[in-house]
Amino acid sequence: xxxxxxxxxxxxxxxxxxxxxxxxxxxxxxxxxxxxxxxxxxxxxxxxxxxxxxxxxxxxxxxxxxxxxxxxxxxxxxxxxxxxxxxxxxxxxxxxxxxxxxxxxxxxxxxxxxxxxxxxxxxxxxxxxxxxxxxxxxxxxxxxxxxxxxxxxxxxxxxxxxxxxxxxxxxxxxxxxxxxxxxxxxxxxxxxxxxxxxxxxxxxxxxxxxxxxxxxxxxxxxxxxx
Length: 226
Fold this sequence. Notes:
The chain has helices at 9-18, 26-38, 49-58, 63-79, 92-100, 132-149, 151-156, 163-169, 173-185, 196-208, 212-217; strands at 103-105, 116-120, 158-161, 190-194, 222-224. By secondary structure, the chain is of the alpha/beta class. It has 2 domains: 7-79, Helicase, Ruva Protein, domain 3 (Orthogonal Bundle), CATH 1.10.8; 88-193, CATH 3.40.525.10. The chain has a 5-stranded mixed beta sheet. The radius of gyration is 17 Å and the shape is globular. The N and C termini lie far apart (48 Å). One of its GO terms (molecular function) is phosphatidylinositol bisphosphate binding. Residues 194-226 are annotated as: Disordered. It comes from Anopheles stephensi (Indo-Pakistan malaria mosquito). Residues 48-73 form the CRAL/TRIO N-terminal domain.
């Protein structure tokens, strides 16, 4: 029997309608992922139902795409170890960055099956006091919690912005790489809020330089706002 957290009726219908989720096939799909992981020794992954179904939902139940995402998720932890070091949420430095509110999920959504809205305020931190690498690391810590606990984000996706966060990250090659990796390993659907064609250009420039996989995928959809 599949051991998953219960979801609301609205999210259940959305998962079936938009993510190709078939409740009677989840167990079979999870078994297929576990068999693949057992034959893939370079990935030491979690294999609990809730973790694996996050990738299945994020990839609309494409097993091959889910495998790519899981592989990338763990490869990043090797390729960019600075994102994985010193991830203690009780560390004073980490708590300082969280309290700045550079990037936080808002508690309410615009309906029971609406995306999670992320409040992004890159201008609130002083780059002389905190590096973009530190800020992105804390963002990945928050994202790791959301992908395991927030069904609205996993099923409906997340909406975040703004162009300024991409511009600040793109000031250094390392920042571009970090932002590209962070977006590409996130199993949830993401949309960026921006303004006009320039926002789309900035987004494409930053994200495509993160990893070769991005070149074939293209950037996430951009929702234009006034």
